[in-house]
Specification:
There is one protein chain. It is built from 10 helices and 3 strands. Helix 6 crosses helix 7 and helix 7 crosses helix 9. Helices cover 68% and strands 5% of the residues. The protein has 254 residues and is mainly alpha-helical. The N and C termini lie far apart (87 Å). It folds into 2 domains: 213 residues, Rhomboid-like (Rhomboid-like fold, Up-down Bundle), CATH 1.20.1540; 35 residues. The chain is globular, with a radius of gyration of 24 Å.
Length: 254
C-alpha cells in the first residue's frame, strides 16, 4: 500500500525535515533489517541467527513471561526475504510520523509509538492463543504504524492523502478504510502471512491511548504544575506568618 500526504497549515508534511525520534526509528529499523537480511541470506553465525529468532514475537514465550521483551523487540525486525515489508512501514513512518512528532515532541511520540506496537503484539499473542498457534512468530512495525496512521487521521482529519499515490482522499476516510481492511483481514485466512489482528490492535490501542488518556503527558504536566504552585503558596503563607510574628516582637521591644 502506497500513500503520501499534502495539506496546508503550519505542520510540515511530505519532504519536511525528519525529526529526531522518527530518524532514530528509521535508522534502527533499517540497520537491524540489513543485519537480519545478511544473517538469513548468508546462513552464517548460527548464534546470531538464534538471537534474531529470539527477538521475534513468540506467543508461547510471552505467555510464559520470559518473552515479554519481545513485545518491543519484534517491531524492529522485518521480512528478510523482500523489501516491500520494511519499505512501506518506513515510508509511512517518515511521511506520517514526522508531523505527529513535530506536534507532540519526541518523548510523547515515542511513547505512543511503542504503546501501539506493544498493544499490537498483545493482540497478536491473544489471536494466536485463541485461533492460531502459540509457536507462530510475528515480526514488523506494522502495528505501531497503524497506530501512527490513526493518530494522523484524528489530528489532521482534513489533510489530503493520496491513496496508492493516485486517489486523493481525506485522512479521516483513509484511516476508516485502513481500519476496515484490517478488521476484514482478521476474518480471513490465518495462514495469509499477514497479522491483521496486530494491525487492528495497533489502531485500537492508539485510540485508547489518545482518547482515554493513558500516560497522557499533558494531564501529568498539569498535575505537577498544580502541585508546585500549591507548595509555593504554602511557603508564602508560612513566610508571611513568620514576618507578622517578627513584627509583633519588634513592637514589644521598642
Amino acid at each position: 500500500m502506497r500513500f503520501a500526504t499534502r495539506y496546508p497549515g503550519p505542520v510540515l508534511g511530505f519532504g519536511g525535515p525528519v525529526p529526531s525520534g522518527v530518524k532514530l526509528l528509521l535508522i534502527s529499523n533499517i540497520a537491524l533489517f540489513l543485519a537480519y537480511f545478511f544473517v538469513v541470506r548468508v546462513q552464517a553465525l548460527d548464534w546470531l541467527q538464534g538471537l534474531f529468532d529470539w527477538l521475534r514475537l513468540w506467543p508461547r514465550a510471552v505467555l510464559e513471561l520470559i518473552g515479554l521483551p519481545q513485545l518491543f523487540t519484534y517491531m524492529f525486525l522485518h521480512d528478510p526475504y523482500g523489501l516491500s515489508h520494511i519499505l512501506f512501514n518506513m515510508l509511512a513512518l517518515w511521511m506520517f510520523g514526522g508531523d505527529l512528532e513535530r506536534s507532540w515532541g519526541r518523548r510523547r511520540f515515542l511513547q505512543y509509538y511503542f504503546a501501539c506496537g506493544a498493544g499490537a503484539g498483545l493482540c497478536a499473542v491473544a489471536g494466536n492463543w485463541m485461533f492460531g498457534s502459540l509457536d507462530s512468530r510475528t515480526i514488523g512495525a506494522s502495528g505501531a504504524i497503524y497506530g501512527i496512521l490513526l493518530a494522523f487521521g484524528l489530528m489532521f482529519p482534513d489533510a489530503t492523502v493520496l491513496f496508492s499515490l493516485l486517489f486523493p482522499i481525506k485522512a479521516k476516510y483513509f484511516v476508516m478504510i485502513m481500519g476496515a481492511i484490517a478488521f476484514l483481514g482478521t476474518m480471513g485466512s490465518a495462514n495469509s502471512g499477514v497479522s491483521h489482528v496486530a494491525h487492528l490492535g495497533g489502531m485500537v490501542f492508539g485510540y485508547a491511548y489518545l482518547k482515554l488518556g493513558f500516560l497522557h503527558l499533558d494531564a501529568l504536566a498539569g498535575l505537577r504544575r498544580s502541585l508546585r504552585e500549591w507548595k509555593q503558596r504554602r511557603a508564602r503563607r508560612k513566610f508571611e506568618v513568620y514576618m507578622r510574628k517578627g513584627s509583633g516582637k519588634d513592637r514589644m521591644v521598642h
